[in-house]
Amino acid sequence: MRCLQVSNQDLEERIPSYEELEKLENEEAGDRPKWDNKAQYMLTIVGFCVGLGNVWRFPYLCQSHGGGAFMIPFLILLVLEGVPLLHLEFAIGQRLRKGSVGVWSAIHPYLTGIGIGSMCVSFLVSLYYNTIMAWVMWYFFNSFQETLPWSQCPVNANMTGLVSECERSSPVDYYWYRETLNTTPDIDNTGGLQWWMVLCHVSAWALLFICISRGIETTGKAVYITSTLPYAVLTIFLIRGLTLKGSLNGVKFLFTPDMNELMNPTTWLDAGAQVFYSFSLAFGGLLSFSSYNSVHNNCEQDAVIISIVNGATAVYAATVIYTIIGFRATEKFDDCISGNILTLLNTFDLPEGNVTENNYDQVLHSLNGTYPEVIQGLNLKTCDLNSFLSEGVEGTGLAFIVFTEAITKMPVSPVWSVLFFIMLFCLGLSSMFGNIEGVLVPLQDLGVFPKSWPKEAIAGTTCVLCCLVGLIFVQGSGNYWLSLFDSYGGSIPLLIIAFCEMVGVVYLYGIDRFNDDIEFMIGHKPNLFWQITWRFVSPAIMFVIFVFYFITKVQETPMYKAWNPESENFPTLEEKEYPSWIFAIIFILAGIPGLSVPLTAIYKCLRNRCCKKDNEFKQDDLNTILSSVWNLKNSIACKVTQWHK
Amino acid sequence: MLVWILFLLCQVGAPALAQDLCQRDAPNGYKVRISLKTALGEDAYEWNQSEMFFFQATMAFAMRRHFQMETYNVDNIILCVQTSRVSFWFVVTSPDNTTMLIPKADVEKAVRMSRHRINNAFLLSDRTLEFLGIYPTLAAPVNPDTPPWLIVFGVVIGAVCVGIIALLISSLLQKRRKEKGMTEDGQDEEDMQVKGVENGINLDGTYNRGFTDDDRFTKL
Question: What are the residue boundaries of the Collectrin-like domain, all occurrences included (chain B) (predicted)?
Fold first, then answer.
């Protein structure tokens, strides 16, 4: 494939040679931090990959795209897209032993933009991700009460009834939108800073700072807890969930396959996007973490193991979530039917026990025959189990509304609430470690902070800065800003960067050189599967996903869902259009990280051109001087050893 | 004879009169609905005439308790329109004049005052012994002085602050130990220098790595 490779001069001078790597390995001379043991590395990567998306995005996709049938596109794309990209990032990080900016500028100075893009995306994602942590902490703090505050509506000011907003919606909705977020009806009203959220926000960043203050020295210890605790809690919830009534309804609903969904291209697109985001690729964090490994670490095996663990965790978490959702849906369904039965009993003064769930339909039918007008006037609710099962089961709605409601129906609710929010916190915190790594290491590589500053100071400054900028998300309109950042900042730029990464490694760094590197590191050349996926299949998949995503996003008018108590369809969220000034923000979020790749290349090119002549001259001179000194020293050394003998 | 006929008429007429006073949707009456099976499940007792009598007695008690002067009796509570749902209507007549009904508002006050006692008499609750039209008063919300979440927050933030201070202290101590080690041991200096050279390399440009190994060669 030599013809497709772009010539890359001076590459050997920018990257460590094999001899140097062996030396680093054997003499342990180097100031780069190292993992204490393999387990720390694996737990950190697993923690980074397994995040909130596994809990609240994957189950929703699974259920909405044909249940068990969704596994097929998911697994196929996991193998064709996730594993190769993962292996690539691990291998290149381990080989070049630098953070994202360092790696890409070593491969070619014009590619520094990829590293900068990764850093920007990591920064944007860190900002809003930690706000979700703040929300989780708020719910966690409020779980230490006997009656959970979201289980009942508060009484209004003159004690005559319940608060109207709560009565019209539900206690959990009210608690989330009013008492937690205090959300404004639209994004133009900022609503001011919510002091309780500011406290939680600050505590989330402070906790993160402690864990990342010394880089992997501290995160390596923290991941023993943050990466393993979610699995323990999921297992506890699974056992509890399976003993609840109606849980199997949920699991059946989740996994019932609908093969027709496989014909729908959106299913494949969503599966591809989910695999991609789930693996936290193109953030730069994976590169960084793998660069702290020993040179001969088996990155191929790691990539396969991590992919399997990530996929399995997604399926496991989906099962657990849906047992609880099944329980909640069944409870709601039972309540709905009981409510209708009671209405019938009361209206027709029938003895209790005459109408049960079993003969409800019969009785209703016969009564409808004899007294149709009365039945019409009753406004009986339609109770459909499937509609309860498909209610709001994605994103923050799942965690803070649906799941919290389910918890209130379980006995000993505070315990389950505490466990659940600790699990969410650990899942998010371990992902934050990777995000922050993707911000801190490039900053150090770029020399933004003075070299004399210790690691703690750099971490501290970054945390303080992010905390201050993140105050956008704790205003009244913060929720809308967060979903804006999530849809535009954390999606399209990553696809661009990942595509550039693959192309950069395969065609600029050289796939042959890369194969040799891997052979040096793990002992054998990557087999045909890797060759085909790296060269053609994965970049093609990335490209297709990017094009479709881009087209869909550009075509639709950006809308957001607002909680407006004055709207007509309250409590359904109101769909509103973004105001025009938002487009500037969207451009900054999606455009700047994506455009950083070509822009940095152009900048470097221009700088090179205007200073090129001087540089060439100096470089030639320096080379001759250095080579002659090297020869001189070698000959002296030889003579001295001879003399000693 | 005439007196005897009048007496007979009264016996027949009184219930008829009572029947007129108590009827469905009576302006001064209340409908009561009882859900025994919902409240007690398997332990539900049967609703029979004795229970109805007990209800009359309880209502009479409630009226006495409210209007402390007047002596209400079971006869003053008239029940009608009983259904198998277990629901019925009742009106309250004045003890002085059995044809006069006590106004709705007064009955409501009496019921509200003794609601708890009435519920307990029948082992029921506000939800299972309903007086349609008399809404149960909502429980006053319990407002603790410090919201519980602030306590937990305080604990967590305290632990975090302790952690940060411990971290900073430990890094300061490490730095001091390193400095001590450097000044005491001269031989380490060269090693440090080697590391220092590596540290000082600017990763952003191109440089010749061949140079760094030199120091090791010359360290005979």
Answer: 26-220
From the list A159, A203, A345, which residue is nearest B153 (CB)? A203
**DSSP 8-class letter at A590:** I
Q: How confident is the model at residue A419 (pLDDT cuts 50, 70, 90)?
A: very high
Q: What is the pLDDT of residue B204?
A: 47
Q: How many CB pairs under 8 A join A and B?
A: 115
Q: Give the DSSP per-residue string, A332-395.
A: HHHHHHHHHHHHHHHHHTPPTTSS-TTTHHHHHHHHHHH-HHHHHHH-PPP--HHHHHTSS-SH
How close, in Å, is residue B177 to chain A by CA atoms? 15
Q: Considering only residues 316 to 375 of chain A, which have any Cβ-Cβ distance to chain B shorter than 8 Å? A: 345-346, 349-353
Contact B56, B77 (CB under 8 A): yes
Q: Round to whole Å and give the CA distance between A106 and A108.
A: 5
Q: Which residues contact A400 (CB under 8 A, 6 or more apart)?
A: A135, A139, A172, A176, A180
- CA pair distance A341, A446, nearest whole angstrom: 69
In this predicted model, what pLDDT tens digit does every residue of B75-108 receive, in sequence order? Answer: 888 888 888 888 888 888 888 888 888 888 888 8
A102-119 pLDDT, tens per residue? 999 899 888 899 999 999
The C-alpha atoms of residue A24 and residue A32 are separated, in whole angstroms, by 10
Answer left, alpha or beta for residue A362, where phi above 0 means left and psi between -120 and 50 means alpha. Answer: alpha
Is residue A285 a contact partner of residue A437, using CB atoms and an 8 Å limit? yes
Q: Residue A447 and residue B204: Cα distance in Å, rounded?
A: 9
**In the block, which residue shows the tokens 């001064």?**
B28
Give the percent of chain A with pLDDT over 90.
44
Residue of A136, A356, A456, A600 to mutate, interface with B, max B Cβ within 10 Å: A456
Question: What tens digit of pLDDT does each residue of A596-615 get?
Answer: 889 998 998 888 888 765 55
Is the omega angle on the peptide bond into residue A571 within 30 degrees of 0, that is, cis? yes
Which amino acid belongs to residue A223? V
- Chain A residues within an 8 Å CB radius of B165: none
pLDDT in tens, A127-170: 999 999 999 999 999 999 988 999 988 888 777 778 888 888 88
- Mutation test of the interface with chain B: which of A108, A203, A458, choosing the one with the most B Cβ atoms within 10 A? A203
- Per-residue pLDDT reduced to its tens digit, A330-347: 999 999 998 888 888 888
Select from A299, A272, A304, A301 the least CA-distant residue to A287: A299
Residue B31 DSSP code:
E
